[in-house]
Amino acid sequence: MPDRSVCVGITYETDAAPLPGCEADAMIMGGISERMSIEDVRPMTGEVTRQEILDALTEMVAQAEPGDNLMFSFSGHGGQMPDPTNSEADGMAEFIATSDGAITDAEIREILAGLPEGSNMTIALDSCRSGGVLEFNDLMGDDIAGNVVAISASQMDENASAGFGDGPSPFTQALDTVLVENPGISWNDALQEINAIDGAQTPSLAYNRPEAAFAPAFAPVDFDEVNPASDNLVDATGLEPGFEDEVDPDAAVDEISADLETLEVEDAAEFEEGAEFEEAIPLDEVTEFDEFGFPVEEVDTGCDDVGF
After folding, report:
1. Which phi and psi angles does 72 have, rounded to 5°?
2. CA dihedral (199, 109, 35, 230) positive or negative
3. Pair type for strands 69-75 and 4-10
4. pLDDT exceeds cutoff 50 at 304
5. Considering the entire predicted model, what is its pTM?
6. CA–CA distances in Å: residue 23 to residues 9, 10, 125, 160, 274
7. Could you tell me the end-to-end alpha-carbon distance of the chain, in angstroms, rounded to an integer?
8. What is the secondary structure of the chain as a DSSP string?
9. How far is it, in rounded angstroms, from Cα 175 to Cα 258?
10. How many degrees, rounded to 5, is the angle at CA 193 between CA 120 and CA 122?
11. CA gap 9, 76 in Å, rounded
């Protein structure tokens, strides 16, 4: 299958908290896809159903072959709900919200498990609580054979800021700016540059191969050629030859994780292009959910007209 991307931007036109700017986010991600040399770009904007997204993601993974570069992006509402699979340590499942229901983190990981070895999937999530949809520890298991890198707008306990009107969100706009101004920038460096621009939230990075942190962000990369012994990694990090003999990969993963947890974040009130978030009600106070798993109307999960 040729390289392919699916770029979702849901506007929730009939919802109490519409997000017209998510369509602009999807268009920006489509442009990033094209810069990845992906010719088959599928935007899904406006009202997009749960089944439409699941079908598009499943089809893309099912048709993937070794060497393929795939990209999936989502911009819209997100949140947390009681874990229906009882597999989450905290008892809560993160989800992305479609026009008619939720898609949980477990459902997305189950689809990604179908990626063949040697295929590459890049994921960008711009929604509240998105850092918990694809967590670092979840991707490091042996159940996903393909190479996965996921960048998210916020941590699992944070809101994500929406754009003004029909404009793009601060995260997606910052992501695009960093990639345009820094061709070939690594994922680690891109994360820090985005955080420096969009200080109202804390972007997160997850991947299932430690060397991915040093690979060029949103680039058509053969991950088998980006490893501690390769010229690509030496060039990207500035490390001297022999790096592969001096670094314990597990220690490197722990160090990267610690770095991501200590990134400095500016106070939300000082963020000129966004707005300050309202404090969300603690999740353990949420007691009633509808048939889709969403909290009932009187419960505030932190996803309002300011956040996703």
Report:
1. -130, 130
2. positive
3. parallel
4. no
5. 0.73
6. 5, 7, 14, 16, 18
7. 33
8. ---EEEEEEE--TTSSS--TTHHHHHHHHHHHHHHTT--EEEEEEES--HHHHHHHHHHHHHT--TT-EEEEEEES-EEEEE-TTS--TTSEEEEEE-SSSEEEHHHHHHHHTTPPTT-EEEEEEESTTGGGTS-HHHHTSSS--SEEEEEESS-TT---BPPSTTSPPHHHHHHHHHHHHSTT-BHHHHHHHHHHH-TTS--EEEESSGGGGGSBTTS---GGG-STTSHHHHHHH-PPTTHHHH--HHHHHHHHHHHHHT-----GGG-TTS-PPPPPPPGGG---B-TTSPBPTT---S-SSSB-
9. 22
10. 10
11. 6
Q: Which two tokens stand for residue 145?
A: 């054979």
21's tokens: 């700017």
Q: Which amino acid is at 119?
A: S
87-102 pLDDT per residue, tens: 666 677 899 999 999 9
Which residue type sits at 32? Answer: I
Tokens of 294: 């969403």
